[in-house]
Amino acid sequence: MKNLKFTVLGVIFGLVLTKSEVISWFRIQEMFRFESIHMYGIIGLAVVVGAISIQIIKKYNLKTFYGENITFDEKPFHKGAIYGGVIFGFGWALTGACPGPLFALIGNGYSIIIASLLCALGGTWVYGYYQNKLPH
Amino acid sequence: MLELFRQPWPWYVSGPIIGLMVPFSLFIANKTFGISSSLRHVCAACMPGNIEFFKYNWRKEVWSMFFVGGVLVGGVLTDKFFSNDSPIQISEQTKVNLIDFGISDFSQYMPVEIFNWGNLLSFQGFLFIILGGFMVGFGARWAGGCTSGHAISGLANFRLVSLFAVIGFFIGGLIMTHILFPLIFT
C-alpha cells in the first residue's frame, strides 16, 4: 500500500507534536503572550532545519527515494494570505490548536476536539462556497 | 532511555524533528509538507456540492488523508505508551494571567473547564470549540495554508506569501489574546 508511508510520517508528526506540547492550548497562550521561548524555539528551529534541507536538495539536485525529481511549486503573493491569516490567528488562539494538533488531540483522547475538527471542515467548505466573492 | 522518551521533549529537540518533515515529505513522494489541504480534500470527497473549489480529482490526494490519519494514530500511541501524565510546565506569568480569567485546571493539554461536551453550546464553548474550529478551517484555506504549510514549509522556502500569512496569524492571535480574551472572560 503506497500510501502507508504517509501514515508512518504522520505518526512521527503526531508523536512529536504531542511530546513537544505543541498541541497544548496553554503553550499557544504562552506564545501569544510572549512569555516563553518554547513555541518560538520549535517553529524557529523547524524553519531553519527545513530551509537548510531545501537548500541542500536544490544544490545537489537530490531526487525522491524513488528517483523522481523534486519540484517546488510557486505560490505567488495574494492578499488573502493576510485576511485569511488573521482569521486563522483568531481560531488558533481560541482552539489553541492548528490543524495538525486537532488530529493529534483527538488521538490523545480529547473527543471534544472532534467538534472543532468538524467545524474546521465546515469552515473549509464555506470558504470554497464564497471563494469567488472574497478578495485574493 | 524509555523514561527520557516519556518526558516532554524540549523545544530544541522537537523543533528540528518537525523541520525534518519538510525534506521527508519531499523524499517519500515529492509532496510539500502541509496539513490543512487535507481538509479541502475531505470536502471534495464527501460534500463537493457543485462548488468549483471542490471540483478536482481528490483521489490523487488521498495520501493527505493517510497522513493526517497517521497524526491521529501518533496521538493515540503517545497517549497509550509514551506519556508520563506530568502537567505542562507553562510559565508562571501565563498561569497567573489565565487564573485571572478564571481558568483553574492546568493538569491537561487544554483547559477542560472550557473544552468539554457539556459546555459545547454555552457562550464560551461556542466561541472556543465551534467558532474557533470554523475560523481555523476557513482562515487556513483563504490564506492558502496553516502553520505547517506557511509557517514551516513556506518560510523554509523563503516564500513572501507565507511571511505575510504568518504575520496575519500573529495579528489575529494577538488581537484575540490581548483584546478579545479580556472581554470574553469578564
Architecture overview:
- The complex is a heterodimer of chains A (136) and B (186).
- Chain A is mainly alpha-helical.
- Helices cover 66% and strands 0% of the residues of chain A.
- Chain B is mainly α.
- In chain B, 64% of the residues lie in helices and 0% in strands.
- Chain B starts with a helix and ends with a helix.
- At the A-B interface, helix 1, helix 2, helix 3, helix 4 and helix 5 of A face helix 2, helix 3, helix 4, helix 5 and helix 6 of B.
Spans of chain B of at least 5 consecutive residues whose pLDDT stays below 50 are none
Strand proportion of chain A: under 5%
Low-pLDDT runs of chain A: none
Helix segment count of chain A? 6
* Biggest sheet details of chain B: none
Strand content of chain B: under 5%
Rg of Cα set of chain A: 18 Å
Query: Structural class of the secondary elements of chain B?
Result: mainly alpha
Shape of chain B: globular
In short:
Chain A is an all-alpha fold. Chain A contains six helices and no strands.
Q: What is the fold's blueprint, element by element?
A:
The complex is a heterodimer of chains A (136) and B (186).
Chain A: H1 4-19, H2 25-32, H3 38-59, H4 80-95, H5 99-107, H6 112-130
Helix pairs in contact in A: 1-5, 2-4, 5-6
Chain B: H1 2-6, H2 11-29, H3 37-46, H4 62-81, H5 92-100, H6 123-143, H7 147-156, H8 160-184
Helix pairs in contact in B: 3-4, 7-8
